[in-house]
Amino acid sequence: xxxxxxxxxxxxxxxxxxxxxxxxxxxxxxxxxxxxxxxxxxxxxxxxxxxxxxxxxxxxxxxxxxxxxxxxxxxxxxxxxxxxxxxxxxxxxxxxxxxxxxxxxxxxxxxxxxxxxxxxxxxxxxxxxxxxxxxxxxxxxxxxxxxxxxxxxxxxxxxxxxxxxxxxxxxxxxxxxxxxxxxxxxxxxxxxxxxxxxxxxxxxxxxxxxxxxxxxxxxxxxxxxxxxxxxxxxxxxxxxxxxxxxxxxxxxxxxxxxxxxxxxxxxxxxxxxxxxxxxxxxxxxxxxxxxxxxxxxxxxxxxxxxxxxxxxxxxxxxxxxxxxxxxxxxxxxxxxxxxxxxxxxxxxxxxxxxxxxxxxxxxxxxxxxxxxxxxxxxxxxxxxxxxxxxxxxxxxxxxxxxxxxxxxxxxxxxxxxxxxx
Length: 421
Prior knowledge:
Layout: E1 2-6, E2 16-22, E3 29-30, E4 35-40, E5 45-49, E6 54-58, E7 65-67, E8 71-76, H1 88-93, H2 99-123, H3 137-146, H4 164-169, H5 191-206, E9 209-217, H6 219-236, H7 242-256, E10 262-265, E11 268-271, E12 277-283, E13 286-288, E14 291-292, H8 300-315, E15 329-333, E16 352-356, E17 359-366, E18 369-383, H9 389-404, H10 406-409, H11 415-418
Parallel strand pairs: 12-15, 15-16
Antiparallel strand pairs: 1-8, 2-4, 2-7, 3-6, 4-5, 6-8, 9-18, 10-11, 12-13, 12-14, 16-18, 17-18
């Protein structure tokens, strides 16, 4: 029996996926539920498991974009599993011993034909006509985008005409080389990376994005973590990191400034009474943004546990589309890569994103004296169409206040109860 394997739907809004990598070869014997391919959607990279045991025939190439529901491979469920050391593909294809000689002869003939064609082309060079060096309309567009002149490109079309393929492959001049290696490498962008790129450009073009900045004295949080992190980890099995403090500070600030927890829907503004915080993390396939649901109901322990679970799933490529869908506000931490200051880009259709940065000891004035404290710059990028400057600045000041007075504003003056110790 031949089983047709079709691309399952990764999510409601996804209509096609891209075959990122086949994990098996054509003609291999596969077991049921064995991962046979990795597929890229515009939100995540997912594994495709075999629906039955048998010998597989691939119907799509790596890099192909295939529609959801399309057949990507066939599995012959009636084929017997080869013995250890046997070659499943040879057993399945069933060739004869003389086939090898035929293949060699075919290859030799093919090489001779190619050599003859090459010689014919060399003896009959392209004629110089009015079309020589002239770019086709499609090629002109590509060259214009690259800022290149047609005279810098050799045409491979009829009579030396420049085709679209010539324009695509053309490389702008990098100046006169002075020695050393000057090679280039072309690699195809994954569907996820292309979608992220499209969304980032879309945000810049369709929102009135502004960024406001402030700085936070992290000394109170450092002291709390130093005193309680060991007991917290021993009790809950997760570390007491910075993300729980920032997440709860965001929850508090969003309650004070609900416009930041809103988004535009046509001519209306949708304001949410819950807080779903998207956490930007770097995964093996690029940027991923899993969501902490109903963060307003979580404690320090709950947030730290959820952050760890989602980060591990993203790192291991196991994150699902559902876990990255939604979100009403985003937190991104460029500080883990050493960033001191940045202007984060809004995660559409959200209206705000908080940027964390690295912590550096700096001298600051405290009660008329110069003291050295661990300081962090924080940034809020927001959509000015629905968030006014007063609200954005007030929101970021509320974040600063909560982080600099966590015992009072985030723990209700009861540290052990807040940390569930």
